[in-house]
Amino acid sequence: MEKIKIITDSTLDLPVSLIREKDIEVLPLLINFGEESYLDGVEITTHEMLERMEKENVLPTTAQVTPNRFEDTFKKYLNEGYKIVTLTLSSEMSGTYQSACIAKNMLESDDIVVIDSRNVTSGLGVLALKACEFRDNGDSIFEIEEKIKNIIPKVKSSLGFESLENLVRGGRLSKTAGTIGSVLGLRLILEVKEGQMAVKDKVRGSKKALKKIISDFESANVDFNSPIVIDEILNEEIFEGLKKYFEEKNIEYIHGIVGCTVGIHSGTRACGIFFIEK
């Protein structure tokens, strides 16, 4: 069986323990406060970043994983006899995918495949876990690539945000959509669609947001043999509601905590689910 390394970036938002268990290599994006840069999740935590954002009233920026960092990582594993499957966050949201492609081309290696997940946060995470599953079942890197590309359109999400200010400020959501969310206490339900954040619905208040997220899940043809992730950042109300729902239904789930890169744009008090349809 081939030695295969699954490589991805720090926007996958899965528990560190699970990342280690599945032997996934994670390359962190950069979090920039002015001239100061930190590796996402390595040199700065989500809690530390949010504290600084509030204290300094500033929205930090992010920087993609560079081609050189990908090249160094690829070289390391190729030299150890691995073949490589790399999944990155959506190319619509970052240049990280392009960086990985540049690094592959620089090395001129047929032992590397690079996949644009067309997703972000735990949508990328569930795809990385599926890649690990296929790897462990003995698939080649090209079989993994084909299977993942077939699954990408089936990754679904339903995400409730208390505030859309950071998504608008960071350019991840239109000002029009952001304005809607600020009127009369409305909560927008977002999804990742065609590689970008898109408005799915609007409801009034967190309780209705929770009901909408559950309704979206119940109306989907969920693949219960694939990972389901509840992803949250300081939103106990929706998280506890989803947790109660899944536990009462005996549905297994992974608790994902939003990392720094995604947290900049989501802000606090966001929560939702990612899953795969059949």
Automatic annotation (TrEMBL):
Write down the superkingdom of origin.
Answer: Bacteria
Question: What Gene Ontology molecular-function terms does this entry list?
Answer: lipid binding
Q: Which InterPro entries match?
A: DegV (IPR003797), DegV_C (IPR043168), DegV_domain_contain (IPR050270)
Q: Which UniProt keywords apply?
A: Lipid-binding
Record's Pfam families? Answer: DegV
Q: Where are the annotated coiled coils located?
A: none
- Which PROSITE patterns does its entry note? DEGV
Kindly give the SUPFAM superfamilies that the UniProt entry links to this protein.
DAK1/DegV-like (SSF82549)
- Give a yes or no for keyword Cell membrane in this entry: no
Q: What name has this protein been given in UniProt?
A: EDD domain protein, DegV family
Species the sequence originates in: Clostridium celatum DSM 1785
